């Protein structure tokens, strides 16, 4: 079985703020790390590989520094890593990013199973996985919380809906996005670091891709634009509810309804 | 006569009302039950006659002058997070809370110190230091402890391997003596050879010598990176025998903890917290601090080489906050997991020389077998402070549990002593360890302890019945 | 249609696409294959073309905004029930579209009973309710739901499509937006419509530390997902103004690679850490009757009962549900503390909860320092009317859908 895991390098802290004067983003964390949610995807891929056999390839789109993240992926036990890096990819939104990744997957001659984390800690959109599946025209299931059955023909997964859990089965090729806590991600291994020292991280650029239509990549291929960023409104202060007991009860329900907590 | 103590009456309360605001005096029946015990009600539940919440040292001084004159016992209380029954009114009297004295008076950047009142929480002090770009290392796990409480119990924690314990960070103490006088122990200086070092006597005195009203603590530069290594072993012997080797490296690890697979099972089963590796029987968890990634990578190389050379199966690297959380949240959930897995628990927190940890752990396993009591050892491998948990299983009768745990404890303390260890490495003596104290330290040493107590507190009114016991006359030896 | 793109160099004019199109939307024109109005974006032709000459495409900067008007709301159904976020989306759609005189239409997709449930939506000020009923749509399958929604979007050509940011919505919307090669903004907390019909979408980013304002100025439709309990639901009107449009579900739309093995109610997690709503009993609870009150409150709020350490010691509390330092750390959306004094040890285990309601008889109780809503009263006095009021509110809500 061939498994591709799509991962992303994110700032090591989402502890950011907006400069009230200039309106620009102040990033606190300078270091980068693998998006924590993607570690669950890698762990899921490695477990499936270890059970069913096959290979795991980690794929990302990002700056060349993503190589460091791929070293980490090697230390976790993936077999192959690919970084799609090109200035032409800069400014990609969900549509362009998912398209670029789907092009990368085509370059790798596809996969039986594609696994994504549920979302990233910087974008929080949780949209890339289903969008890739659409570009590749393969079925997907999102928010997978556990695996029910995996073999060389199909995968059956348990996934969360609003008030229910659903068990869905798909043949390959297909895509899943996995929820946090599906498994505890393994830690990078020092011994594996030594044994994968010579392994290369493959780089792909725009020129390598099958689709050369620039209008589908980067900022040109991105229908959404971030117009501006601003700090969230400060949380409201404390409310003391007065009156007799019945009045207090009624007032509380009214306030909680107003605040959409109920 | 110092004993029996004077029973607080209406006249006394009226007097206290002239010193303290009405709303900060709570009479016996109205005192909330959480003030009757600390985090270990097993070591006694005692109702105070009066709860007073002081807001400054002058108030405390006046309270003590009166209490000294009238012979009323006074027990000081911080956040009440102790684990030895230390901050409870064993003989009734006044419970003096310092939690309203919680101002952090400031960080002195030139001297690299922070000065605070005793009721500030450890977490608040650590955060204030961090906000100034500095670091207060002692972290006994309990971050909602009052800072005063951590000083008078000389709190340790796992970072002691590299950074030492609370004692190593106390520069100066301002305190009220039992007779009400306000004194200063040392000042904000790095060296001091001015007579006896009474400041060090006060640290760890568990509120039996004086009442801390202000403390100045040393801060250090904040390390920029913290990583952890999880090191799996097939046997606990190889696991523990790596520790002295790790301590001989070219740098000092911040913390070295050990845990075994049965503990991980319990935490997983009861708290649903899963450790990131379950392939092995025993694990060392090593924390490393560094300022640059290059420095960190070098430390990891050296530690990994050392561990694998000593029989480790691999070295797993936790290099992000999330990964570290998956490691340390399991370690932090250990006590709760053990509690959930047993009907009752008894604990001893001995400390042994680091070279003797393996021997102690193996002896503990033998003692467990001999008395039919489940004993789990976890803890601070790097500093020799081993939390030894005795667990009650359902098949034991109350009587068997009581008799057998007592026998286990006696033997465990004897082993610790034989190996050159001490009765308590953390949490103090309080009430919980009192019965074993005299035998452990020996008659002459115990009399010295009693004499020290009497020098500070000749009427034995300050937190009586803790650390050293009262004799039949209510005196404390000498 | 500008979505289906024929690569003239590759097209061999073999007619396979024309034959395979289930909607009879493709015709041979003068300059090659032409796409007609009947196209439902099903994608059959893309797959059928032996030359690989057909693909979906709408380049950024190509949409003619005048061709797209009105707002389409995706009405989520789960196991035969309309998700309450639907009404909130309708309310928001009406607010946004009002000034432009936009139609507000709803797409309701599901299995048996869908057409009946469509009737319920008629009284919320919507124009059309497109009902797609087919037994194969009874459970969610991302691929077939995408095809059905694509059909509806092609029919209506809305300027904006609103989808609930539920597990289902967030699985469906990105797939759909990709099919139309347009922008999707997830988890919007605020929406505004500009004069030129551009939707101003505001959402939290970086874990809520920053708000981002996002626009899709060149493409249509504009997709946004919105969380439950963010927007205002409209009042139910006495008159039914909406019209139900029964839409044919072609077999191609329901063909799916996904097989649903089973659907069952989500199990309550055994731990209290995962719960959204918690009601805590503290020392103010003096007896079994007090515990019953707390339980009743938890039931009506749909949450679980927890306790303080003090209550465990009193023998009323379950130690596995104890919050605080020597117990669990929780971060629910709503926590109601009943008779809890709020010691540091307790507070450290729950102070990061999103909304804290404190009920305690002691005005000096520490819990009031951290609570968002403070009720200084005896819990035995306040909880009974509170439970009563919450029950009334619940009934009103459940009636909203049951009366047509």
UniProtKB/TrEMBL annotation, chain A:
Positions of the Electron transfer flavoprotein alpha/beta-subunit N-terminal domain: 22-213
Pfam families: ETF
Family annotation (CDD domains): ETF_beta
Transmembrane residue ranges: none
Any one GO molecular function term: electron transfer activity
Name of the protein in question: Electron transfer flavoprotein small subunit
Taxonomic placement: Bacteria, Bacillati, Bacillota, Clostridia, Eubacteriales
Automatic annotation (TrEMBL), chain B:
Chain ranges of the FAD-binding PCMH-type domain: 43-222
Keywords linked to the UniProt accession: FAD, Flavoprotein, Oxidoreductase
Coiled coil, from the record: none
Transmembrane segments: none
Pfam families: FAD-oxidase_C, FAD_binding_4
UniProt-recorded Gene Ontology molecular function terms: FAD binding; oxidoreductase activity
Superkingdom of source: Bacteria
Annotated source species: Anaerotalea alkaliphila
Protein name: FAD-binding protein
Cofactor: FAD
Automatic annotation (TrEMBL), chain C:
Gene3D superfamilies (UniProt xref): 3.30.70.20, HUPs (3.40.50.620), TPP-binding domain (3.40.50.1220)
List of residues binding FAD: 283, 308-309, 322-326
GO molecular function, one term: flavin adenine dinucleotide binding
Cofactor(s), by name: FAD
UniProt keyword Iron present: yes
Positions of the 4Fe-4S ferredoxin-type domain: 2-31, 37-59
Keywords (A to Z) from UniProt: FAD, Flavoprotein, Iron, Iron-sulfur, Metal-binding
Cofactor binding remark: Binds 1 FAD per dimer.
Name of this protein: Electron transfer flavoprotein subunit alpha
Family named by the database record: Belongs to the ETF alpha-subunit/FixB family.
GO biological process terms on file: fatty acid beta-oxidation using acyl-CoA dehydrogenase
Phylogenetic lineage: Bacteria, Bacillati, Bacillota, Clostridia, Eubacteriales
Keyword Glycosyltransferase listed: no
CDD domains in UniProt: ETF_alpha
């Amino acid at each position: 079985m061939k498994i591709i895991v799509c991962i992303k390098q994110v700032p090591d802290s989402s502890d950011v703020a907006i400069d009230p004067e200039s309106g620009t983003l102040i990033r606190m964390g300078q270091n980068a790390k693998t998006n924590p949610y993607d570690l669950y995807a890698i762990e899921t891929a490695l477990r499936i590989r270890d059970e069913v056999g096959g290979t795991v390839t980690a794929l990302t789109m990002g700056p060349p520094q993503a190589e460091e993240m791929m070293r980490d992926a090697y230390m976790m036990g993936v077999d192959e890593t690919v970084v799609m890096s090109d200035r032409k990819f800069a400014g990609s939104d969900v549509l362009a990013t998912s398209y670029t990744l789907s092009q990368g997957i085509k370059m790798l001659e596809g996969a039986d199973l594609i696994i994504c984390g549920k979302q990233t800690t910087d974008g929080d959109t949780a949209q890339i996985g289903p969008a890739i599946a659409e570009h590749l025209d393969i079925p997907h299931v999102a928010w997978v919380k556990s695996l029910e059955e995996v073999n060389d023909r199909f995968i059956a997964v348990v996934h969360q809906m609003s008030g229910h859990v659903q068990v869905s089965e798909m043949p390959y090729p297909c895509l899943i996005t996995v929820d946090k806590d599906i498994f505890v991600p393994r830690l990078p291994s020092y011994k594996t670091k030594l044994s994968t020292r010579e392994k290369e991280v493959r780089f792909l650029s725009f020129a390598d891709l099958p689709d050369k239509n620039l209008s589908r990549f980067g900022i040109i291929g991105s229908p959404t634009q971030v117009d501006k960023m601003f700090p969230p409104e400060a949380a409201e202060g404390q409310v003391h509810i007065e009156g007799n007991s019945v009045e207090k009860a009624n007032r509380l329900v009214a306030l909680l309804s107003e605040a959409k907590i109920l | 006569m110092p004993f029996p103590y004077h029973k607080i009456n209406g006249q006394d309360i009226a007097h206290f009302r002239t010193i303290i605001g009405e709303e900060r005096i709570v009479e016996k029946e109205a005192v909330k039950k959480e003030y009757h015990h600390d985090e270990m009600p097993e070591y006694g539940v005692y109702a105070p006659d009066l709860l007073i919440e002081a807001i400054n040292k002058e108030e405390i001084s006046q309270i003590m002058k009166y209490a000294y004159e009238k012979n009323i016992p006074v027990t000081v209380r911080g956040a009440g997070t102790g684990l030895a029954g230390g901050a409870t009114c064993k003989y009734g009297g006044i419970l003096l809370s310092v939690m309203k004295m919680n101002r952090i008076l400031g960080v002195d950047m030139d001297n690299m110190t922070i000065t605070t009142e005793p009721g500030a929480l450890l977490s608040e002090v650590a955060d204030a230091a961090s906000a100034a770009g500095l670091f207060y290392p002692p972290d006994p796990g309990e971050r909602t402890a009052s800072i005063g409480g951590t000083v008078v119990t000389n709190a340790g924690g796992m970072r002691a391997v590299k950074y030492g314990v609370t004692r190593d960070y106390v520069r100066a103490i301002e305190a009220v003596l039992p007779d009400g006088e306000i004194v200063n122990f040392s000042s904000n200086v790095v060296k001091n050879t001015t007579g006896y070092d009474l400041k060090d006597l006060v640290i760890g005195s568990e509120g039996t010598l004086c009442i801390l009203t202000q403390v100045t603590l040393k801060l250090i530069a904040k390390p920029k990176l913290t990583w952890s290594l999880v090191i799996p072993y097939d046997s606990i012997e190889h696991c523990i025998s790596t520790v002295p080797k790790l301590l001989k490296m070219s740098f000092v690890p911040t913390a070295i903890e050990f845990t075994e697979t049965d503990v991980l099972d319990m935490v997983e089963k009861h708290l649903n917290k899963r450790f990131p590796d379950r392939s092995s029987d025993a694990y060392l968890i090593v924390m490393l601090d560094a300022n640059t990634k290059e420095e960190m990578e070098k430390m990891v190389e050296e530690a990994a080489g050392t561990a694998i050379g000593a029989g480790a199966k691999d070295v797993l690297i936790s290099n992000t906050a999330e990964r570290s959380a998956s490691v340390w949240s399991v370690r932090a959930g250990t006590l709760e997991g053990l509690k959930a897995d047993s009907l009752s628990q008894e604990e001893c927190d001995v400390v042994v020389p680091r070279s003797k940890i393996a021997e102690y752990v193996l002896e503990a396993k033998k003692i467990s077998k001999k008395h039919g009591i489940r004993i789990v050892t976890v803890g601070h491998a790097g500093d020799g402070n081993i939390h030894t948990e005795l667990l009650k299983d359902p098949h034991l009768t109350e009587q068997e549990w009581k008799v057998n745990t007592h026998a286990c404890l006696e033997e465990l303390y004897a082993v610790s002593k034989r190996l050159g260890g001490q009765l308590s490495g953390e949490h103090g003596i309080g009430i919980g360890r009192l019965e074993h104290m005299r035998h452990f330290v020996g008659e002459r040493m115990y009399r010295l302890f009693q004499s020290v107590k009497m020098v500070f507190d000749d009427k034995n009114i300050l937190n009586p019945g803790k650390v050293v016991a009262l004799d039949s006359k209510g005196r404390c030896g000498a | 249609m500008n979505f289906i793109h024929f690569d003239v160099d590759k097209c061999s004019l073999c007619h396979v696409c024309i034959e395979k199109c289930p909607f009879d939307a493709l015709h041979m024109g003068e300059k090659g294959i032409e796409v007609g109005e009947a196209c439902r974006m099903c994608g059959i032709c893309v797959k059928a073309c032996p030359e690989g000459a057909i693909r979906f495409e709408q380049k950024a900067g190509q949409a003619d905004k005048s061709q797209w008007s009105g707002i389409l709301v995706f009405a989520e159904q789960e196991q035969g029930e309309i998700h309450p976020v639907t009404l909130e989306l309708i309310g928001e759609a009406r607010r946004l579209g009002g000034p432009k005189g936009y139609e507000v239409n709803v797409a309701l997709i599901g299995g048996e009973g869908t057409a009946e449930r469509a009737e319920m939506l008629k009284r919320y000020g919507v124009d059309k309710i497109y009902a797609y009923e087919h037994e194969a749509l009874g459970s969610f399958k991302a691929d077939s739901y995408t095809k059905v929604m694509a059909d509806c979007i092609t029919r209506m050509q809305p300027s904006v499509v609103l989808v609930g940011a539920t597990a289902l919505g967030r699985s469906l919307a990105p797939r759909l937006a990709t099919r139309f090669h347009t922008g999707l903004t997830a988890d919007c907390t605020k929406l505004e419509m500009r004069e030129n019909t551009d939707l101003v979408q505001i959402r939290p980013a970086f874990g809520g530390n920053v708000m981002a304002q996002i626009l899709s100025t060149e493409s249509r439709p504009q997709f946004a997902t919105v969380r439950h309990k963010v927007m205002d639901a409209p009042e139910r009107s006495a008159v039914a103004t909406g019209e139900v449009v029964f839409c044919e579900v072609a077999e191609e739309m329901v063909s799916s690679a996904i097989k649903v093995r089973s659907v069952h109610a989500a199990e309550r997690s055994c731990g209290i850490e995962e719960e959204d709503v918690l009601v805590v009993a503290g020392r103010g609870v003096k007896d079994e009757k007090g515990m019953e009150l707390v339980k009743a409150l938890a039931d009506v709020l749909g949450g679980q009962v927890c306790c303080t350490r003090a209550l465990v010691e009193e023998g009323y509390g379950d130690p596995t549900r104890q919050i605080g330092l020597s117990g669990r750390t929780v971060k629910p959306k709503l926590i109601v503390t009943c008779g809890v004094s709020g010691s540091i040890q307790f507070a450290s285990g729950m102070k990061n909860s999103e909304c804290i309601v404190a009920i305690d008889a002691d005005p000096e109780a520490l819990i009031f320092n951290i609570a968002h809503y403070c009720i200084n009263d005896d819990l035995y006095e306040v909880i009974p009317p509170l439970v009563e009021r919450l029950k009334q509110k619940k009934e009103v809500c459940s009636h909203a859908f049951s009366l047509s």
